[in-house]
Design goal:
The chain is an all-alpha fold. The chain has helices at 7-17, 21-47, 51-65, 69-86, 96-121, 125-133, 138-168, 180-190, 196-234. The longest helix has 39 residues, at 196-234. The chain is flat, with a radius of gyration of 22 Å. The protein starts with 6 loop residues before the first helix and ends with a helix.
Length: 235
């Protein structure tokens, strides 16, 4: 018998999905943390004077940008244990979340390296020279003058990269991670693939609310820090 659209499934699915949102947020948070750290290193390599370091950093960014997220996820999930197995190390029992975090950290780092690089290069070099000329050390000039302004410039792109990571993170269910997307797939399977539309709509609503909340947060942060930037540039 054909199952017709039932809005009650949307309402009933949301409370079942919400508890698994913490897994999605945990993976995203760790990926942002490690990805940002690696992104800073890559950006420093791009900005630095070493031609070899620049080629490595830009090569990394190009390769990661050209690799689909799901392909990178499978390469990480199957590749790392296979390589470790050659050295007599068994990684097959490691939590799937570890491979997801590694995958999206690598991907986020590529995006962040460009965000950081372009933000840094957007600041007039004369401000650094002026800060040093009035007695600030190089470190003080960077921390007090350059980095605060670069941070404001980077905020919108950082927010966009975070939203993209949240959406790409939904692919984690393909290797068996039970996050919010994985739970939705389990619910659909438990219903013998009926009312899948309603459950996906419930999932979409959660993602919409989360994305809008993140977007609004970054808009407010941008306004707050933009005021600080105006103070810095006028003093």
């Amino acid at each position: 018998m054909e199952k017709y659209f039932d809005v009650n499934y949307i309402i009933e699915s949301v409370p079942m999905l919400i508890p698994f949102l913490k897994v999605t947020l945990m993976v995203a948070g760790l990926s942002v943390l490690f990805g940002t750290i690696l992104g800073f290193i890559l950006a420093a390599m791009k900005i630095g004077n070493s031609k070899i370091a620049k080629k490595i950093a830009y090569g990394y960014t190009t390769i990661l940008r050209c690799t689909p997220s799901i392909v990178l996820l499978f390469l990480t999930y199957y590749g790392i244990p296979a390589i470790a197995d050659n050295f007599g190390v068994n990684l097959n029992d490691i939590d799937k979340a570890v491979f997801v975090v590694i995958t999206f950290s690598l991907q986020f780092a590529a995006a962040m390296s460009e965000v950081i690089r372009t933000s840094y290069e957007s600041i007039d070099r004369g401000q650094f020279e002026a800060a040093v000329s009035v007695g600030l050390s190089n470190t003080q000039a960077y921390w007090r003058i350059i980095l605060p302004q670069a941070f404001v410039v980077a905020l919108p792109n950082f927010g966009n990269s975070l939203l993209e990571l949240m959406k790409e993170g939904a692919l984690a269910y393909t290797i068996g991670l039970i996050d919010i997307m994985g739970k939705a797939e389990l619910i659909i399977a438990g219903n013998y693939n009926t009312h899948a539309l309603e459950i996906y709509l419930a999932l979409a609503v959660i993602y919409w609310i989360l994305s809008i909340a993140i977007e609004q947060l970054f808009l407010k942060l941008e306004k707050v820090f933009s005021k600080g930037k105006q103070v810095i540039t006028t003093t």
